Amino acid sequence: MPAIKFTKNELKKQKDGLKRFERYLPTLQLKKQQLQMVIRMVEQQEREKGAELEKTRRNIEGWVELFGETRDIGSLVKLSSLETETGNIAGVDIPVFKSISFEDIRYDLFETPLWVDFAVEGLKKLIAFNAEVEILRKQVELLGQELRITSQRVNLFEKVKIPETKTNIRRIRIYLGDQQTSAVVRGKISKKKLVVEKE
Q: What CATH class is the domain 8-187?
């Protein structure tokens, strides 16, 4: 605890600091609640996309086995671009999935079996779901970091700054009250001495 001065100016400074802390604390608590709510929502979205990813994976496993027998699977599905934009939640910049596109790879329709079209579409879905899940994980990570920092600030204000400032105000008031009482007593003693000397 830093040393404090036992003056009226210091008392005013401490009171102003307490008002500032008490005014800022509800904002921090609101931000913490908002972050917790958003993290739960994003985790739910991540679980849903993960379930869709797993369902798609199971659906195309049979196609992939057949596909693996005829040609290299990577040659028909190539990622062209993955677009994200930046969103802002409670002051945190997070990536938001926008779109995904694939290269248009041509193959001979007469030489490839009919199921190849289904397998290619399934693989594109799989890659898209995987990209969305990764972006949602990144969102949870960034929001989690901000939640940790905000929680630390809330704890700092609630458990350290506000009690410390209240203690300082109490100590300064006691000291100033004692000084005032002492001044009154000294004044009365001086007055008695003057009265005694006049007699």
A: mainly alpha
